[in-house]
Amino acid sequence: NPACKIEVPERLVVSYGALVENGLADRCVSIPVREATDADILLVHSEEYLEAVKKTPYMTLEELKEFTLQYGDVYFHPNIYHCAKLALGATLQLVDNVMTGKVRNGLALVRPPGHHSMRSAASGFCIFNNVAIAAQYVKQKYGVKRVLIVDWDIHHGQGVQYSFEDDPSVLYFSWHRYEHQKFWPNLRESDFDVVGKEKGAGSTINVPWNKVKNHRNAVHIHTNIHILDLVLVCAGFDSAIGDPEGEMCATPDIFAHLTHLLMNLAGGKLCAVLEGGYNLKSLAQSVCQTVHSLLGDPAPRPANLEGPCNSALESLQCVRSAHRKYWSCLKHAGITST
Ligand SMILES: [Zn+2]
Question: Is 116 part of the annotated catalytic residue set?
Fold first, then answer.
């Protein structure tokens, strides 16, 4: 599928290379990777789906193509089952090390990404839902009662949302390019008025952006201050400048600020997991900015801090209205421009 040609191994090579070049890799603790087990994968995915993915390393090219066609914007390479198990295992290793206090926080540089994959379906380059599984895993293993997931990837992580829509113990916050459903994954469920179901009502927060290219850095900071508190990050960097997917114009230093804000909210316990980011240059820079903040370095002054555009303010206003009955802090909140 030509849509998949941007999800390349070089994404990790340049990201890690930039960390080394900037002296950041030396300041980090490297955590050994493990393969995820079936039990890990089954925390979110169905047995049928896992069994089907397990067969992919033995399929012929024709069989792989046919298998791939049942899903959207994803490909299966003979190695992908192995890689997806390592991506998930790395994520869980990070979570374990943060939960046990061996490290304060961290970034899992992994691929394939995870936030689009669903219980019984691969989607959007994603095979297993690394972050959704990590949330279930910490709940089960550590008895954590309240997990916050922030998805700053430019795409809506529908797989994460579906996993927790009726679960009040996991708050899912996503902002994403939406354009009134014209942007992939083109789902009605990605809009602001989809807030979770049953007991989970109010614990899904979607901030859809309906205009591209005019989202300045201020929008990002503005959103966070008003709505979030947190733990796991679906760290996609496809909202950064130059990305072929996002077509937004956040400069990489904004990720230093976002990370900074989230570190304040979660008592410092923060696990970021790589999702998207397809412009190799801005991806590498964004990864470095994130790691700078995780290491406690002061964030640079944001370059492009003008007020949010009207379309963004409108989206935020809609989100607030939709959530007013669930969040007492929003009851009297007005809308202000920075
Ligand atoms: Zn993305």
Answer: yes
